[in-house]
Amino acid sequence: MCVVSLDGPTPCTKKGNGEPPQAGGRRIQYLTYVQVLRDPSSHCMVPKHRRLDAAERGVVEARYNVAQDADWPKIPTKDPVCRFYDFTPGDLQEIQRVRLVSCGDQRYYRLVVASPA
Asked: If we measure between CA atoms, which residue out of 91, 115, 92, 95 comes closest to residue 106?
C-alpha cells in the first residue's frame, strides 16, 4: 500500500502503524508527491532494476556459486530506486546496464539491506 501526501507521514501516523509499517500483512510505503513525480527509473543515467523471484535467485546463486547473503554486493533501502520500487531487505535485484562500447548489456546483482537509522 502506498500513501502519498504533501509533507510525508506525521509522527502520529508512523507511531500508529509501528515499525516497519504493516497493514493487514501488507507494507505501507509513505511518499511525498515530489517523490512520485521524480521517478528515478525514467532518468537516462539510471539502469534498469528488477526484483528476482525465488527460482531466478536460485539459478543466479548457483551460477555465481554464492552460498550466503553476505557474499552479495549490497544496496541500501534508502537508495532512490529501492524506495521507488519498494524493494525490501533480503530482495535480490538485477541491474541491467547497457554498454555502448561493448556488445550487449551487462547484468549486476545487489542484495537489498536495511539502511542504518
From this structure: 95
Residues 6+ apart with CB under 8 A from 113: 74, 75, 76, 77, 89
- Give the pLDDT of the chain (117 residues) as one tens digit per residue: 667 777 777 777 666 554 544 555 667 777 776 766 667 777 777 888 899 999 999 999 999 999 899 999 999 998 888 888 889 999 999 999 887 777 778 899 999 999 876
Domain ranges of the chain: 1-38, 41-117
Question: Which run of H or E residues covers position 94?
Answer: strand 92-98
Cβ-in-10-Å burial (0-12, 13-18, 19+) of 68 comes to exposed
Cell numbers 543515467 correspond to 45
Rounded Cα distance between 69 and 74, Å, is 9
CATH 3.90.940.20 fits 41-117, yes or no: yes
**Is residue 115 within 8 Å of residue 76, measured between CB atoms?**
yes
Eight-class DSSP state of 92: E
